[in-house]
């Protein structure tokens, strides 16, 4: 699959598919397409586990398959940037509204949600495999690399994704009422940070 994340805050993934190629995408992320494509609910158990582990209703991702050459565009449900995250057998954990799409070599599931439900219920989605995952955040999305021995603290309202095998702890401030929890990432790891907060922490 030939796909790119367009620059800017318009937040688009443009995928050029040949016959038989497919993309896994968040339900509702499909903007438009040329050619003939089939859109089917991804019924794999691994997808359903995203909703089940989150303990709430969640739209099931869809599989978009080209019957002939086609160009397909995807976008997140909010205004912001989309970034491409290359995966080489490793994975990332992403917030529930950050996932946009992946190519067919990547599996999406909820393997780590059970470990984090009490601390970080906003992180139910793992993407693992060989390929590229596309995630989105509000405002600009910055990639922050945390060296071994260092730590980096990010407001949970600004976390987009991070290395699935990374070390993370969630801290709450008792001094400031209604402030979002903070996520402390310990290196070596990488975290993707949005410059604008998710409204689920600010409303």
Automatic annotation (TrEMBL):
This protein's name: Uncharacterized protein
InterPro entries (alphabetical): AIM24 (IPR002838), AIM24_sf (IPR036983), Trp_RNA-bd_attenuator-like_dom (IPR016031)
Highest classification ranks of the organism: Archaea, Methanobacteriati, Methanobacteriota, Stenosarchaea group, Halobacteria
Native source species: Halobacterium bonnevillei
One Pfam family, short name: AIM24
Domain of life: Archaea
């Amino acid at each position: 699959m030939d796909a790119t994340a367009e620059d800017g805050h318009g937040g688009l993934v443009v995928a050029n598919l040949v016959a038989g190629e497919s993309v896994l995408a968040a339900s509702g992320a499909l903007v438009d397409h040329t050619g003939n494509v089939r859109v089917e609910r991804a019924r794999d158990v691994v997808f359903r586990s995203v909703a089940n582990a989150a303990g709430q209703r969640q739209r099931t991702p869809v599989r978009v398959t080209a019957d002939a050459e086609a160009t397909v565009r995807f976008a997140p449900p909010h205004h912001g940037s989309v970034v491409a995250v290359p995966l080489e057998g490793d994975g990332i954990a992403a917030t529930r509204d950050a996932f946009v799409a992946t190519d067919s070599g990547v599996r999406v599931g909820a393997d780590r949600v059970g470990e984090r439900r009490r601390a970080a219920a906003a992180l139910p989605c793992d993407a693992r495999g060989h390929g590229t995952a596309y995630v989105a955040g509000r405002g600009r999305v910055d990639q922050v690399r945390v060296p071994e021995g260092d730590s980096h603290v990010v407001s949970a309202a600004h976390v987009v994704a991070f290395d699935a095998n990374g070390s993370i702890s969630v801290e709450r401030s008792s001094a400031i009422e209604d402030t979002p929890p903070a996520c402390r990432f310990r290196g070596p790891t990488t975290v993707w940070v949005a410059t604008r907060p998710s409204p689920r922490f600010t409303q």
